[in-house]
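To whoever is on call:

I kicked off a structure prediction for a single chain this morning and the downstream step that reads the tokens threw a length-mismatch warning. I double-checked the sequence; it's 599 residues and nothing unusual in it as far as I can see. Pasting both halves so you can look.
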Amino acid sequence: MISPMTKYDFILLNGEQEGLLEQLQELGLVDITRGSKPVDDQSRRLVAEVDLLDGMIKGIKSADIPEGTAVQPLQFGDSLADAAGDILMKYNETAGALAAAEKQLAALRPWGDYSRETVAKLEAAGVPLHFHRLAAKQFKAEWAGEYALSVIAEEKGNVCFVVAGKDALPGEIAKPSQTLAEAETAAAALRDRKQLLSGHILSLRERLSEIEALRAEALSKLDLYLAGASAAKAAEDHIVTLEGFAPVADEAAITAKLDELGVLYLKEAAKVEENPPISFKNNAFVRLFEPLTDMYGRPAYNGFDPTPFIAVFFLLFFAFCMGDAGYGLLLMLVGLGLRKVEGFKDLSPLVVTLGAGTTLVGFFFHTFFSMNIATWSIFAPIRGIFLPDHLFGLSNFDAAMVLAILIGVVHICLALIVKTVAATRVKGFMHSLGTWGWTLLIVGGVVVGGIALAGVISAAVTKWIVIILGVVSALGIFIFSDLDRNPLVNIGSGLWETYNTVTGLLGDVLSYLRLYALGLAGAKLGEAFNAIGTMILGDGSSVALWIPFILIVVIGHTLNLAMCALGAFVHPLRLNFLEFFKNSGYEAVGRKFNPLSKQ
């Protein structure tokens, strides 16, 4: 849910804002309204400092250091950042020079180590040498009888040859600027230099935490400066005002701190038109999926938090697309392993949760590494909990396909209900009758249809309920959709909306077939690897055949797991971002709550 916000207006004498902002930064609870881009030379300098440290950290981490390189202690003066920047610059320059030297060396090898003095004497005597590299199919053997030609080497489909005299043949290249020995000496010196610098890079990696701390400090300075730069000045620059927002839940702690500092401030409940930042207040499970909401954008202050819906349905859709209990167990192990990987620790709980969901749904689908566990005798007592081959007597359709469509219908109906509730809360009941009409028609129709198919109510009762729903919905859609508008305009608008809704809903529902299609594709590909492995293994009597069997099954399922996980992430995200958000009327116009803090 969206946390209610309190707006704070701080009134200070010019020059006092820096002290207040430092105190608020220590407190870490108030989002001071500020820009996010450089506004003057000072902020540009701070941004450049942060970018420089970012580049250093990435460069130190990404440097390709050969195995067995010894750590070379790094001597630096007052600034570790300056020393690190100098080493990285020298390392990159040396690596670039070495790459060019290696390329030059490769170009010189076909020519061998010729004598530069001999070439100079021939040219002085009026017999210049022409160096050529020509494709073998273009080289003519008869040239050797017509010219003073000597073939030096043949490599990679090319012929390297030298012609003495004034006449030159096709494929002439510039005379090598170095001899092979000179190039090898230069390359060897660059290799030694790169080795030494690589040792310095390893030394920097041992002090990476110090450089990251410098970056965090620079970022805090930048954030603090941008907050101060946003202060509005008044009374001939003698007074400045600052605006900030904080969750209502933190109001007691904030006011106690402000009263202690003796700061003059005003506070009031935040209003939608003030564009307050959006802070979510969710339980531990839902918080795992907040990054997915942030990928699309946070809602308006008077909107709704879609994260609880994403948490449930993204997990369900992901598990549906994977559809394999074995893959789910592997994902859980991967998630547990991520706890020990720096930079991926935060992903661990989400991956474990997705793995657990996949395991449960995969078990319901009775699939374990693409094997049908419903046929295993160990599960005979509980076989009734597995998904049957067909649902509701629809023998022509796979049960998983029917289930995917049903889930899509429920998802869209829930989106319409959310849209109706949100519209009623923001606009009031009388100004959201059009939305109510569509929700009653679609959601009511689905509910009544389901009850009728289950045989709970008779056909006659169903007919009268449908008629009443249709009439009430039509009044909301065509007559009272906008009370401030001419009824004839409402009718025209309702007809246009009917066309768009009918054609759009059909496509939206069919979009959920991708859940079935992805699950089926993964299962069939896994079955194919199992079948290939089983064909090679035969009856299992040959120990030697177990090795290729294991390799095929392990590599095959690893590739299949990777592809399934990619599809199971992208397509459920699409169903939430497009189908659900469109039908729920969700608008990502809010900004994330970003309190001024040291971190």
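Update from on-call: the warning came from a stale cache, not from the record. Cleared it. Sanity check on the structure: The chain has a mean pLDDT of 84.
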